[in-house]
Every structure is written in structure tokens, then in C-alpha cells.
């Protein structure tokens, strides 16, 4: 059973990618629907198994590490697999209606979409540093391709910029991996931890960790390395922006977080942890501030991603030399933030796409009258905004609560200010959109009304982001001990 | 100086040169070449460093092969994008975008 | 789970479900929407009545589950929650009737009634919350659901007022969250409990407790419009009259006052708050707000703005009452939660009627309106006399009880505040009444509309008269069981005896 599920999880995306490569857009869409059903069922099945029996290690094709590919299937990984299934299917279904099938190059959307999904699953489940690299590259290359699908010069410029940033990040990471292998002779994270327990810390391994984290931070768009993100996320087609903001940046963060939690204690330092936290805080403030000043709707949402990513990096200081319980709170808070931001931001980008479709303009001030004539689209956007502002009962609020508790528990009160100020700043840019759309100056309905199927998808995602807060204890209990190794390497 | 250290230092130097090129040069093809130089540097470190127990280690060789495949794929994608960008805009660099829509006071 | 666990949830869900249904209804579904609105309001009222009877007999209605690790979501009905829940469900019913008439023919009615129901659901949640965390949940939900109501008209002025409202309330919310999180870190997950938790507080945490108390009051004080955090309230007057009525009489300002009472009574405990030296400054602040806002009210030309400053002043009575450290004064404060709600909603309904029927907004336009609209003006007069504190109306009961409480607590200066406030009330209400009844009407009304036989639409005519009758009844029948006064005595008895 498990064997089939694992095979289904990893190989259907690749098979579908190749399959859809041979088809035009309409056929690709049809085939993709089938693939989405398979993926959702498989992810759900695996999640149920892990939530019942706990996590396990899985050697692909019976080969063991170091030559074989070993996968780590634990509660956190399957939760992210399931999250990916939810968000990616929503974006896939939305894209099927949203993207114009008549432009010839749009048929590449489906293969790229499936390669991206395959890469994401590989990263969530990857157990060794090099396979994570391959997964990351698969994600980056398909993401860049998806951004370039916009077709215009602006989209290409943004995608080239994105590609260069992503490649630089990957190389920094790979250099770190090379150093780690040179010093420890193993690529598995668990193996490195095992060696570190036996022997003293070799000189220069801090450098390896720093290189890897820096590379990953560049790919996650941590301030001040964020400048590639807003153009790329802002200019891409809305379903693509949703995928990028919700999932792609989370993949590199996920690796950075796992590295830090396993290796941070022996290889890192207090100053490094505080520095990363400080950069995250700067991202929160700077990203929100710029989001307030953007004229275009999707740029607002894109800069909001920069800000929200900042919260994630508070994981570094809040888990470094603190008590077990505080560290657990921080990990749970950040995990919830990843999930709720993924759901809310996907909902927001999809809703923004609908609004842009309806108003025929990308600008914020074109939203005048939307609340009267297009309340449904605005409502999805608004609900997603509630989670971004981390107001209750959303998942964002539960995340913020846990991070507040972790900051209080560790005595690092300065993060409290960041969390509270960040919430207010995000309210500033979200309410700016509400304000624009509540303005009543039009008497007649001149808007294009998007098909109902386009409007329902962001609503479902937004409701999930809101409802996450109410069930967050259950969700976290499935992850049992997030980011934690079980069994022997 | 051992062979492994020599390889690693050479790799590190290539990395440095590549990084400099990637950040400093403006022509996109040059940037791409710089990326490839940097990649070669990383591969050199990867193969060169773990040679401690007499004779080369087979695992990094396999990794570097995979890495080269990935680098080729990335390069190919980049070339396609740069070519298309050149056709659409007539430009070979990303500069001149300051006045464009990205905005923000950065 | 048993039925007693479900009833509070049902009471909460009725308006939540009503809100979802209303959002889904088409704009033109006028009858259906009105039916859903009134049906939900009646069901909720019935559920609250059931709980009132149950709590009186000592039944424990409650449900809880773990929401975020370490924190529980608790709904629980005690005597004090039912006071607020009862107020909101009765006035929701009346305000819904009123709003149906008020918004006839205006756009965006689905949106309005949807958020209106959501707002009531939040109020219900605030009333039934069993700990500060749950309280905060609904407190922020209230902010969000009232924003679309404040900006409902979609004019630049409304949007500006909405912005002020959001800046004030969200900042207050952030401060409150900080305080709640800190308190949770210091003392863990504290349910609301009569008598509080800190009677024998560890001396080590006393410093933190004082700071947390200040933050809590600052956060809650924004919605309760305590000086200097009251600035949003007069601006929010641009909202349609039913919203102003709801914001001022029931939902928003009362949520803040209710929260402060919860903190003093059921988290810290009256004795502990007094021992930490927190009650006296709170009383001074409340007394100052009462006088300051009354003086400001004198200078307002716009009727709704004058009423808004009157609200700022009156809500602080509640806070003054509970901070006087004595059971009698506390009864006076708590009973004012209900009395002020009933009286103030009467006044706002009437203000809305004048605006909607005659186009009157400013006080100097009101000359002679009593003859044109005798029913509405009668209700307005009763409400105004109630506010001044004329016996035997609701306001008199409040002031009498509070005065006796202040004497019992040996705080004679409070009597002076009460007298001064009553004089100021009279000074800003009597001229209005004089204009209504004793001046000749001007040549014509600014913007007159006519509806058949009654002086105004029947939807608008009856609600203020009903609340005016209630203003009289709660005063005359104050000593009967289940009157607001007896219920407040029950609450205080349970608080002080534990």
C-alpha cells in the first residue's frame, strides 16, 4: 500500500509532465484534471497513514543511501505534501479557465506545472542534501519557465532576473553541500548530526552552513536579497504567482529551516541567529511599507509576500539555545505560518487575478465600485487578507500567537514588537485595498463578471486559511514533533 | 600542500571569479558564462575535497555528473529566455529597468 | 456533548448562519432576507431566554476545545454574559426591524445585513467567551465586521471615518493581544471566574500584573472610548443610523466596557485589583471622561455627534461603577450596561427618524419637529430624560445606585461627579427638547418624505417607541425579579461572595 502511494506521489507528476508536453493546451487541461485527482488522493492517503502510524524512511527502488535516494516521510513532510496538493490543484483548476488557450506558448504551462509539483514533493520528502539540491533546481527552473509564460518583454526580464538569482542561490547552497561532504563524508542530514555527536566540530563547517543558508535565503527572498521577487511574482499570470508565493519560496525555506534545526545548535552562533531574525524583521517592516506604496494590485500582494516571509525567519533566533518547549512553540508557529500564508496568499493572488480580469486594469484605484458589483471576488480577497493581517480566528493568528508565546518564553521581547507592528502594517496595505473597493462612484455595472468557477476557488482557499486557526491544534498534532528525526539514519 | 587542498582552492578561486562576473557584468550572456564558471568551481571543490582515504571517492563523481546535467538544463533555459528577450526588447542586459513598473523607492 | 454545551454555540451560530445565508441571497430578495433576519433574531432571543432561566437556576452552559496548543476556546454562559447577550439579542431584533425600514431602496443591502448579522454574532461571542483568548477572537471579529458598516455609504467622508476607526481599533487590538499573550505567559490559560485569579498573587509577578492591567485597559479602552482613546467614535457617526445605534448602544462600545469589567471582576478579581492599586486611577480616568465628554457634547451642532459624545460620557459610568470597590456601586455600573443601551438606542433611532423623514441633521433645524412627529419626539424626550436621570426612568436607577455605592465606599467625590454630569446632561439635552416642543417650525423641512397614515414608515416608527417604553419599565419595575437591576445584583452577589 505504502509502496504504491509513494510511487504514485513521486512518479505521477513526472509522467504527467512528459505526457502533457505532447499535447495542446485544451488536452493538457483534460489530462491534468485526471492527474490532480490522483495526486490529491495519494497525498491524502499518505497523510492518513502517517497520521495513524507515524513517519518512516523509504529507500527509493530498494537502494539505500548514499547511492540510492532515501526519502524521509514524517508528519511534517506529508502535511506539506498535502498542502501542495491542495494549493497546486486549486491553481491548476484556476489556470485551466484563466489562461488563454489560444496563445501557442501557453501549452507549456502544463508540463512546467507538473515538473514544479514533482520538485516540490521531492523537496518535502528529501532526506539528503544533494537530492534536495536537485529538487530545488527542478522547482526553480520550472518556476522561471512559468513566469516567462507571460510572453512580453517585461515578463522575460523578470524571469531572467529570477533565474539568475535562483541559480546563484543554488550554487551557494551546492558549495555548502560540497564542504559538508568534504568534512563529514556523508550527505544525509541525519548522518551529519550523527557524526557531530561522535566527533568534535570540524573547522569551517560553520562556513558550510552559512553558505547553504545564504543561498537558500536568496531563493526565499529574505531581505535584503528580495529584489527579484516582486517583479517575478507581480508580472506572472495569477495562478503562477499563486504557486510561486504559496509554495516555491516555502521549499527553500523548508530546507533552510531543517538545516538550522538539525545543525544550528552545533554549527551556528547566537549572533548568526539574531542576525537572521533581524533581517526577517527588516523584511516585515520594509516589505509592508513598500506594499503600502504600490500602485498595482498584484505588486501589493507580491510585496506582502516579502513581508510575510520575514516572519518565517524568526524561527532562527527563537530556536537557538532556548528551552525545548519554547523551541517547539516557535517551530509550530512557523509551520502554521507557512501553511496559512500558503493558503491565504494563493487565495489572494487568484482573487486578485479575478479582480484584474473584471476591472480590466491592474491598478488599485481601478477597484472603485467592486464591492457593490463584484462582492464575491472581493470577499475572497478580504478573507485572505484577514489571515495575512493575522487576525483571529485565522491560521495566521494562531501562528502569531505561538510566535508571541515563544518570544515571551525565550525572553527575546524585541520580536514582540516586530510581530505586533507587522500585523498593523499588513492591515495598512490590506485596508487600502478595501478602501479603494468600497468607494462608491460608479452608478452602473461596467465590470466583466468572471465565471463562477474562477471565483469559487480562491474562496475555498481563503476559508481554509481562516478555518486553519480553529483546527490548528489538530493539524499540529499530526505533525507530532515537527522537523524532528525519528528512527536511525 | 595536498592535492585535495589544491583542487579546493582552485575551485574556490573559480567560484570567486564567477561570482564577480555574475554580479559585475551586465551583458546577459556574460552573466550566464560567469554562472557556468562558478558552477565549475563548485564541482571542483566537490570532487577535490573528499579524497582523504587514498583515492577518489565515487559518490561525488556521481553527484557532479548530476550537477552538470542540471547546469546544462539551466543554461539552456537561460539561453532560450535571453534570446527571446533580445528579440522582444532589443536589449542584452537588465539595466534601464529603474524607470520601469517595479516601482518602490529602492 | 450534552444539550447544555450546544446551546451557547447555537446562540452564536444563529446569526453567523443568518449572515452567510444573507450574503448568498440576491440583492432583490427583499422578503426572504427580512424573513431570515427576523427569524434568526427571534431564535437567538429564545435561546438567550432559555439560558437566562437556566443560569438563574444554576445550570452551567459551556463548551471548550483546544484551539492552539496551550490555549482553549471556551464558550460559557454565566450571569454576566447573559446580561450582555440579552441586551444584544433584544436590541438586535429591534434594530433589524428598524434597519429594514431605514435602508429601503438603498443599494448594497445584502452586504449590509450580512455584516450586520456577523457583527451581532461577534457580540454574542464576546458575551459568551469563557476566557480572554476567546474574548479576543470575537473582539477582533467585531472590528472587522463593523468596518463595512461604517463605510457603508462609500463616500470619501465615510471612508475617512472608517480609516480612523480601523486605526484606533486595530492598534487597540494589538495592545490587547500583547497583554493577553503576556498574561498567558505569566499565569497560563485563565478562564473567567467569579472572584478572579490573583487574590493571593505571587509578589514576584505583581509588577508584571500591573503593567499587563494597564495594557489590557488601554487595549479595551479604545472600544470603550475612554479619554483619550475616544476620537474614533464621533467620526464614525457618518454611518447609517441603525449602525450608529448598534455601534453605540450595543456592540462596539459595550464590548470594550464589558471586557474591562471581565478583567477587573473575573481575571484579576476586585480585591486583587484594589490591592494592586489599580482601581482608583481607573475611577479617576472614568470620572474625567464622564465630565470631559459631557462638556464636549455641549458644543456639538450635529445631533448625532452630540449623542456620540454623550455615549463617550455614559459608557464611563459602567467603568466608574465597577472601579469604586463596593458591591452597590458595582451593581450601578453593571445595570448601566443595559440601561444606557436601551436609552441610547432610543435616541439614535429617533435621530435616524428625523434624518430620514425630515432631512434634519443639525440641532438648529429641529425647531417644532415635535408637532410634525409627536411619536418619535415623545420617545426622544423619554430617552433624554432617562439620560439626565429623572426618576423613575432607567438612568435614575443607575445614578441612585451608584451614588449610594459611592457613599458606602466612602468616596464622596463621586457624588459631585454624578451631580455635575447630570447637570451637563440636562444642559445639552434640554435645549434640544425645548426646540422640539416649544419652537415654531421653520418654513419647511430640509428634505421631507411621507408615508401614509403614520408620521414616518411603520418600520421606523415602532422600534423607538418600544425602547422608550422599556426605558420606563426597567425604571418602574426595577425591583421585580429578572429586571436589569435584580440581575445585576445577582451578578455582583456571585462576584463578591466568591
Automatic annotation (TrEMBL), chain A:
Protein name: Hydrogenase 4 subunit B
Membrane topology listed for this record: Multi-pass membrane protein
GO biological process: ATP synthesis coupled electron transport
Keyword Oxidoreductase belongs to the record: no
Lineage top rank: taxon: Bacteria
Transmembrane regions: 6-23, 30-50, 76-96, 108-126, 132-150, 162-181, 201-222, 242-261, 267-289, 301-322, 342-361, 373-393, 413-435, 456-483
Domain (NADH:quinone oxidoreductase/Mrp antiporter transmembrane) ranges: 127-422
Cellular compartments annotated: Cell membrane; Membrane
Automatic annotation (TrEMBL), chain B:
Spans through the membrane: 6-25, 32-50, 62-82
Membrane topology summary: Multi-pass membrane protein
Subcellular location: Cell membrane
Superkingdom of this protein's organism: Bacteria
UniProt GO cellular component terms: plasma membrane
Chief site of localization: membrane
One Pfam family linked to the record: Oxidored_q2
Keywords noted in UniProt: Cell membrane, Membrane, Transmembrane, Transmembrane helix
Keyword hit for Transmembrane helix: yes
Record's keyword annotation contains Calcium: no
Similarity field: Belongs to the CPA3 antiporters (TC 2.A.63) subunit C family.
Name listed for the protein in its UniProt record: Na+/H+ antiporter subunit C
Organism, as annotated: Marinobacter vulgaris
Automatic annotation (TrEMBL), chain C:
Pfam families with a match to the protein in the record: Proton_antipo_M, Proton_antipo_N
Membrane-topology descriptor: Multi-pass membrane protein
Cellular component GO terms, alphabetical: plasma membrane
NADH-Ubiquinone oxidoreductase (complex I) chain 5 N-terminal domain ranges (all copies): 71-113
This protein's record includes keyword Membrane: yes
Residue ranges crossing the lipid bilayer per the database entry: 6-26, 38-59, 79-100, 112-139, 165-187, 208-233, 245-264, 276-295, 315-338, 378-401, 413-438, 459-480
This protein's name: Proton-conducting membrane transporter
Lineage of the organism: Bacteria, Pseudomonadati, Pseudomonadota, Gammaproteobacteria, Pseudomonadales
Amino acid at each position: 500500500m505504502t509502496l504504491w502511494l509513494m510511487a504514485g506521489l513521486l512518479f505521477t507528476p513526472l509522467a504527467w509532465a512528459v505526457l502533457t508536453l505532447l499535447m495542446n493546451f485544451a488536452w493538457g487541461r483534460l489530462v491534468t484534471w485526471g492527474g490532480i485527482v490522483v495526486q490529491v488522493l495519494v497525498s491524502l492517503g499518505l497523510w492518513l497513514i502517517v497520521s495513524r502510524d507515524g513517519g518512516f524512511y523509504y529507500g527509493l527502488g530498494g537502494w539505500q543511501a548514499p547511492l540510492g535516494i532515501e526519502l524521509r516521510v514524517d508528519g511534517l513532510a506529508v502535511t506539506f505534501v498535502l498542502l501542495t496538493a491542495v494549493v497546486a490543484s486549486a491553481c491548476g483548476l484556476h489556470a485551466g479557465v484563466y489562461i488563454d488557450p489560444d496563445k501557442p506558448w501557453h501549452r507549456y504551462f502544463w508540463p512546467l506545472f507538473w515538473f514544479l509539483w514533482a520538485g516540490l514533493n521531492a523537496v518535502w520528502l528529501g532526506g539528503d542534501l544533494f537530492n534536495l539540491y536537485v529538487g530545488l533546481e527542478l522547482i526553480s527552473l520550472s518556476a522561471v519557465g512559468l513566469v516567462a509564460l507571460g510572453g512580453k518583454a517585461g515578463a522575460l526580464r523578470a524571469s531572467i532576473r529570477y533565474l539568475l538569482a535562483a541559480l546563484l542561490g543554488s550554487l551557494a547552497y551546492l558549495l555548502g553541500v560540497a564542504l559538508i561532504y568534504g568534512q563529514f563524508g556523508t550527505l544525509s542530514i541525519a548522518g551529519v548530526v550523527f557524526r557531530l555527536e561522535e566527533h568534535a566540530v570540524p573547522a569551517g563547517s560553520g562556513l558550510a552552513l552559512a553558505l547553504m543558508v545564504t543561498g537558500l535565503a536568496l531563493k526565499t527572498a529574505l531581505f535584503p536579497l528580495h529584489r527579484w521577487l516582486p517583479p517575478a511574482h507581480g508580472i506572472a499570470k495569477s495562478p503562477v504567482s499563486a504557486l510561486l508565493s504559496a509554495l516555491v519560496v516555502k521549499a527553500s525555506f523548508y530546507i533552510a529551516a531543517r538545516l538550522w534545526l538539525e545543525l544550528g545548535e552545533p554549527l551556528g552562533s547566537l549572533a548568526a541567529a539574531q542576525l537572521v531574525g533581524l533581517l526577517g524583521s527588516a523584511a516585515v517592516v520594509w516589505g509592508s511599507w513598500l506594499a503600502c506604496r504600490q500602485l498595482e494590485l498584484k505588486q501589493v500582494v507580491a510585496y506582502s509576500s516579502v513581508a510575510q516571509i520575514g516572519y518565517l525567519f524568526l524561527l532562527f533566533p527563537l530556536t537557538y539555545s532556548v528551552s525545548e518547549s519554547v523551541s517547539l512553540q516557535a517551530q509550530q508557529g512557523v509551520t502554521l505560518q507557512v501553511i496559512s500564508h500558503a493558503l491565504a496568499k494563493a487565495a489572494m493572488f487568484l482573487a486578485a487575478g479575478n479582480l484584474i480580469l473584471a476591472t480590466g486594469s491592474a491598478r488599485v484605484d481601478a477597484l472603485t465600485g467592486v464591492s457593490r458589483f463584484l462582492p464575491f471576488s472581493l470577499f475572497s480577497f478580504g478573507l485572505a487578507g484577514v489571515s495575512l493581517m493575522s487576525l483571529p480566528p485565522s491560521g495566521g493568528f494562531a501562528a502569531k500567537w505561538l510566535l508571541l508565546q515563544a518570544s515571551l518564553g525565550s525572553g527575546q521581547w524585541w520580536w514582540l514588537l516586530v510581530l505586533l507592528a507587522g500585523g498593523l502594517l499588513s492591515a495598512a496595505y490590506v485596508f487600502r485595498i478595501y478602501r479603494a473597493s468600497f468607494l462608491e462612484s460608479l452608478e452602473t455595472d461596467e465590470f466583466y463578471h468572471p465565471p463562477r468557477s474562477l471565483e469559487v476557488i480562491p474562496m475555498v482557499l481563503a476559508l481554509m486559511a481562516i478555518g486553519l486557526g480553529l483546527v490548528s491544534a489538530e493539524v499540529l498534532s499530526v505533525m507530532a514533533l515537527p522537523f524532528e528525526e525519528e528512527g536511525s539514519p | 600542500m595536498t592535492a585535495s587542498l589544491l583542487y579546493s582552492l582552485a575551485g574556490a578561486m573559480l567560484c570567486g571569479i564567477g561570482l564577480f562576473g555574475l554580479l559585475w557584468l551586465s551583458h546577459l550572456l556574460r552573466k550566464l558564462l560567469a554562472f557556468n564558471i562558478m558552477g565549475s568551481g563548485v564541482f571542483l571543490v566537490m570532487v577535490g575535497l573528499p579524497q582523504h582515504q587514498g583515492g577518489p571517492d565515487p559518490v561525488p563523481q556521481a553527484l557532479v555528473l548530476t550537477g552538470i546535467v542540471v547546469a546544462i538544463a539551466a543554461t539552456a533555459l537561460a539561453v532560450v529566455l535571453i534570446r527571446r528577450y533580445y528579440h522582444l526588447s532589443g536589449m542584452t542586459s537588465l539595466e534601464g529597468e529603474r524607470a520601469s513598473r517595479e516601482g518602490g523607492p529602492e | 456533548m450534552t444539550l447544555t454545551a450546544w446551546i451557547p454555540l447555537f446562540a452564536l451560530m444563529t446569526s453567523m448562519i443568518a449572515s452567510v445565508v444573507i450574503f448568498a441571497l440576491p440583492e432583490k430578495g427583499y422578503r426572504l432576507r427580512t424573513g431570515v433576519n427576523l427569524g434568526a433574531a427571534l431564535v437567538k432571543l429564545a435561546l438567550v431566554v432559555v439560558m437566562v432561566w437556566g443560569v438563574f437556576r444554576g445550570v452551567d452552559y459551556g463548551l471548550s476545545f483546544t484551539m492552539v496548543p496551550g490555549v482553549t476556546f471556551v464558550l460559557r454562559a454565566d450571569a454576566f454574559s447573559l446580561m450582555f447577550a440579552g441586551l444584544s439579542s433584544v436590541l438586535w431584533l429591534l434594530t433589524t426591524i428598524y434597519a429594514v425600514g431605514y435602508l429601503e431602496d438603498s443599494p448594497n443591502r445584502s452586504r449590509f445585513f450580512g455584516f450586520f448579522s456577523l457583527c451581532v454574532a461577534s457580540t454574542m461571542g464576546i458575551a459568551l467567551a469563557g476566557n480572554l483568548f476567546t474574548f479576543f477572537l470575537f473582539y477582533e471579529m467585531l472590528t472587522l465586521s463593523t468596518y463595512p458598516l461604517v463605510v457603508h455609504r462609500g463616500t470619501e467622508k465615510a471612508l475617512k471615518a472608517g480609516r480612523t476607526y480601523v486605526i484606533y481599533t486595530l492598534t487597540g487590538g494589538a495592545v490587547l493581544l500583547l497583554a493577553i499573550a503576556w498574561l498567558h505567559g505569566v499565569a497560563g490559560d485563565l478562564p473567567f471566574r467569579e472572584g478572579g485569579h490573583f487574590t493571593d498573587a505571587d509578589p514576584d509577578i505583581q509588577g508584571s500584573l500591573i503593567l499587563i492591567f494597564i495594557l489590557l485597559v488601554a487595549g479595551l479602552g479604545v472600544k470603550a472610548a475612554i479619554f483619550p482613546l475616544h476620537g474614533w467614535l464621533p467620526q464614525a457617526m457618518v454611518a447609517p443610523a441603525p449602525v450608529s445605534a448598534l455601534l453605540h448602544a450595543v456592540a462596539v462600545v459595550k464590548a470594550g466596557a464589558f471586557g474591562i469589567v471581565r478583567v477587573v471582576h473575573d481575571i484579576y478579581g476586585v480585591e486583587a485589583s484594589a490591592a494592586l492599586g489599580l482601581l482608583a486611577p481607573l475611577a479617576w480616568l472614568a470620572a474625567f471622561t464622564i465630565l470631559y465628554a459631557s462638556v464636549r457634547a455641549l458644543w456639538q451642532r450635529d445631533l448625532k455627534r452630540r449623542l456620540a459624545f454623550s455615549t463617550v460620557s455614559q459608557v464611563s459610568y459602567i467603568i466608574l461603577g465597577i472601579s469604586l470597590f463596593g458591591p452597590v456601586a458595582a451593581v450601578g455600573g453593571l445595570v448601566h450596561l443595559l440601561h444606557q443601551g436601551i436609552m441610547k438606542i432610543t435616541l439614535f433611532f429617533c435621530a435616524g427618524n428625523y434624518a430620514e423623514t425630515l432631512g434634519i441633521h443639525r440641532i438648529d433645524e429641529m425647531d417644532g419637529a415635535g408637532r410634525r412627529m409627536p411619536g418619535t419626539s415623545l420617545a426622544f424626550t423619554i430617552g433624554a430624560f432617562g439620560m439626565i436621570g429623572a426618576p423613575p426612568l432607567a438612568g435614575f436607577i443607575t445614578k441612585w445606585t451608584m451614588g449610594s455605592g459611592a457613599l458606602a465606599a466612602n468616596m464622596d467625590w463621586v457624588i459631585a461627579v454624578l451631580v455635575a454630569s447630570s447637570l451637563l446632561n440636562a444642559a445639552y439635552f434640554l435645549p434640544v427638547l425645548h426646540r422640539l416642543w416649544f419652537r415654531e417650525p421653520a418654513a419647511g423641512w430640509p428634505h421631507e418624505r411621507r408615508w401614509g397614515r403614520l408620521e414616518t414608515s411603520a418600520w421606523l416608527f415602532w422600534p423607538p417607541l418600544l425602547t422608550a417604553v422599556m426605558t420606563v419599565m426597567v425604571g418602574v419595575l426595577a425591583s421585580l425579579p429578572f429586571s436589569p437591576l435584580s440581575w445585576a445584583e445577582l451578578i455582583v452577589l456571585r462576584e463578591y461572595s466568591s
